[in-house]
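Ex. 9. Protein: D-alanine--D-alanine ligase.
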Amino acid sequence: MKKILALVTGGFTGESAVSLKSATVVEQHLDRKRYEVYKIYIYPGNWYYESTTGEKFPVDLNDFSITVNEEKIRFDGVFNIIHGSPGEDGKLAGYFDMLGIPYTTCDAQTSAITMNKGYTKAVIDGIKDLHVAKSIHLFGKRPRHTKKVLEQLRLPYFVKPNNGGSSIGMSKVKAEEELEAALDRAFQEDGQVLVEEFVSGREFSIGIYRSGGKITVLPATEIISSKEFFDFEAKYSPGVSEEITPGRMDEREAERVTHIAEEVYRKLNCKGAVRMDYFLEHETGRFYFIEINTVPGQTETSLISQQVRAIGKTLKEFYTELIEEMWH
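Predicted structure tokens for D-alanine--D-alanine ligase:
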């Protein structure tokens, strides 16, 4: 008997376009012998399933079901691929928890904490061998913020919306006079902003997931961007950044980051597949935490997809593992 699966996509933020791309790939690679799949679009005030003929069937929010040709369809589980709100910030997880429907991503508490870059850094601070760049967490736009940053941090800085994703609203500040505009840009995206001292190092991203009760750390990808940093354009435009999987680390570095990644996954109580971004500092060889994505992109060229292929697994096998894990 096939399990009935809702593949949820869309979302309430600018990242919905990326979510739709990820969902298209996931849909292509799901095991149809095991699962009957319905793609559910979630937009503000508009949750629906669209049939192959283009007919839209609304979702009954009382029990997250759909009625197609007079047949009521309930779901055994949810494959969540919504980046940003409400799929990555805990709102959707809390809703599914109340209905008792399992899902492939982190629980509501972990999703909410990890969506907040400042809080995440506070939780993972203290993990052996993992360093955190000096930063200031700003709440609400205030004129005195600029002075506070200039007094407490040394240039250059990264200025980023605290709860944003896909690097929208993020800037690198090299001179004092650029700070004001960078803060304005970040505050347009979010009421909280994180300003971090710049770490000079090579950038990597590493996937981590749990399957059969065991945590697997995938090979890291090294990101060489022709841009100043791995911004929205570098992430989603072909040719702007070069990605090497597995990234160039010696055996000891690869071993150390595997331990670090596993510990971060445990300490944040993650579920499903997540992606941790980090710097390997040039002078010291120290690992610096950048951020964690609890609903990482799943397009064909996404970092996780590259890393899964690097260990000789197909995306179909990988997605099956993620789905089966949510029922354990």
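Check your answer against this statement. The chain is about 30% helix and 30% strand.
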